[in-house]
Amino acid sequence: MKRKIACLLTAIIYSVFILTGCAKQETTEKDDLTVIGMSQVGAESDWRQADTASMKAVFTEANGYRLLFDDARQEQENQFVAIRRFIQQKVDYIVVMPITENGWDAVLKEAKDAGIPVILVDRMVNVKDEDLITAHVGSDFYAEGKKATDWMKEKYANAEQVNIIHIQGTKGSTPQIGRTAALDDAVKANSKWKVIARMDGDFTEAKTYEVMKEYLSNRDTLPQIDVVYCENDNEAYGAIKALEGFGYTCGKNGVSVISFDATYNALVYCQKGKIAMTVECNPLLGPLVESVIKTLKAGEKPEKNRYVEESAFRPEDITEELLASRKY
Ligand code: GYE
pTM of the full predicted structure? Predict the structure, then answer.
């Protein structure tokens, strides 16, 4: 009996030893990696997929990170759930591409109370306490919209009337708000410009194709269409498909389709003349997010808002070199 008890005790001590050993090893391994909880909008556009790829290329184990990536499938509620999970998991940093701007105060306060810095990428949030956000990297969407409306001003300088169809992005998202505001301001300043229809394309090709098809189905009763202002490339693809399906021509002597992002396929459409102007929006933000994290690790304060440099393209600007060098 005594022998049995002794054996049992040895076995228990041995397993405790092994277990603690393993656990210790696991923590040490984990401690070496910086853990990032990332809540991405979804996969609604080519831009978004390029943005996700840029993040995944930077936040690898080889670079010293463990990336916990969550795709919110365009639902803000899913982002809240993911962020609360990241807080429980005690990640080192939370990176969020917020779908829409409102409703973030409570969940971001929970992150702040847990001492986890929150870095916003691409879009912004509208919160009462600015300190809930450590830093933001992304684009100036109003400036992007202004590039498009400046081009319209030049193109339609002598026109009697300019009829515009406006396809908006996800309502309440920062790019929708900025790009819409730029158009609204330009319409106010140009008495000959008229928005004849405004539709929600939710940044997707499929939704835009549907809403445009529905609108154009009354073709005989519609006024002339001069411009279709799409708030991203994928909306432009849907709009062009619908327009061409109803016999419209997109191009120099037809409808001017405008898009934002200027991803590879949009540059090809633009080269062919089907997109009259595509405004660049850079999705390759992974390295900028990493530089914010490095600054924080060094105990320094990162810039609160970092905007990326961007340009815009007309068909005559698209060269083979540009296409060959485009990374998204
Ligand atoms: O323009 C669009 C995407 O937030 C800048 O979201 C981003 C926008 C981009 O779905 O294609």
Answer: 0.90
Question: What CATH number does residue 118 fall under?
Answer: 3.40.50.2300
Centre of ligand 1 to C-alpha 49, Å, is 10
pLDDT value of position 31: 65
Ligand 1 pocket mutation pick from 176, 261, 278 by most atoms within 8 angstroms of CB: 261
Check whether residue 189 and residue 267 sit in a common domain.
yes
* Residue 274 reports pLDDT greater than 50: yes
Query: Is residue 6, in this structure, part of any structural domain at all?
Result: no
- pLDDT grade, residue 3 (50/70/90)? low
176, 320: one domain: yes
96 Cα to the center of ligand 1, angstroms:
14
Atom of ligand 1 nearest to the CA of 283: 5
Please compute the mean of the pLDDT values over residues 1-17 and round it to a whole number: 48
Residue 118 covered by a domain: yes
Residue 21 confidence (pLDDT): 44
| Distance of alpha carbon 215 from alpha carbon 217, whole angstroms | 6
Asked if residue 235 and residue 149 are part of one domain, the reply reads yes
pLDDT for 148 equals 98
Name the residue at shortest CA distance from atom 6 of ligand 1. Answer: 48
Atom of ligand 1 nearest to the CA of 204: 10
- Domain shared by 183 and 318, yes or no: yes
Ligand 1 centroid–CA 13 distance in Å is 57
Best residue among 124, 281, 282, 307 to mutate for probing ligand 1's pocket (most ligand atoms within 8 Å of CB) is 281
Domain with 68 in it: 33-139+283-297
What is the per-residue pLDDT for 255?
98
